[in-house]
Amino acid sequence: MKFLGLVIDDQLNWEGQIGHLEAKLNLSIVMIKRIKHFIPKTEYLKIYNALFLSHLTYCISCWGGISKLKLMKLFSIQKRCVRLLFGNQFSFDHAEYYETCARVRSYDENMAPKNYCLEHTKPLFNKYNMLCLDNLYKYHTFMELFKILKFHIPISLFDLFILSSRGEKPIILLPHVNLDTTKRNFVFSSSVIWNKLFGKVFDRCTAQPSGLVIPGSDANSDLAASLGVIKNRLRSLLLADQKQGDVIEWL
């Protein structure tokens, strides 16, 4: 069934949602191909955010925890859109890719073997500070959980999370689950992401002269931090992590 634009199946494997999203993203690419020549390149990032990214990130915290294999289809479509708007080489989405007039090319160019390799997109993502699909899931999941814990809204979701009373950091206790499908739900996956990123996003509390550490004594060290500060820090952290490793190979 379809509920608020989200396709939900009885097995909660999100295959219906992935198929529905694939079709919608491909239609967005077709729309972008038609209008990109009439819009200056300085506005391409706004086109990407409005016509493509808005569909890709809709309810991503619900279905984004599925296996990486299922997400590869959507990630391939995202890379296709990035090549279309920001790529330096022509791909099959560019009209110039199909120019076959022999008079505009030399004899050596006509006889040379064709290179069908697509342009690497990791440099493009890093150049324009765009998050890949996996980091988009982490970003939106972490921020939604932060709002739930900060404002206690909705209370039905807030009651599902248990904060640990040990230490100065509000670590979330992971629920006891046995099935892999259950580990991909919002409660479990968001708790794992929170515990991994909390110490890197929030400030550490400084010790008092007596050596005592009071939780929340420093600004932006607990749930009292502002949404704007946490958003900027989390995005910067994910972008820095995304740029690690090989220049062209995704980790």
What do these coordinates show?
This protein has helices at residues 15-35, 44-56, 60-63, 68-86, 107-111, 122-127, 133-151, 155-158, 180-183, 186-201, 227-242; strands spanning 2-3, 6-7. It is an all-alpha fold and 251 residues long. It has 2 domains: 2-115, no CATH class; 135-242, no CATH class. The chain has a two-stranded antiparallel sheet. A hairpin with a 2-residue loop joins strand 1 and strand 2 (6-7). The longest helix is centred in the first third of the chain and has 21 residues, at 15-35. It is globular, with a radius of gyration of 22 Å. The model has no long low-confidence stretch (mean pLDDT 87).
Question: In a few lines, what is going on in this structure?
Answer:
Helix content is 51%, strand content 2%. It is mainly alpha-helical.
Give short descriptive properties of this protein.
251 residues; mainly alpha; 2 domains; two-stranded antiparallel sheet; 11 helices; 51% helix; 2% strand
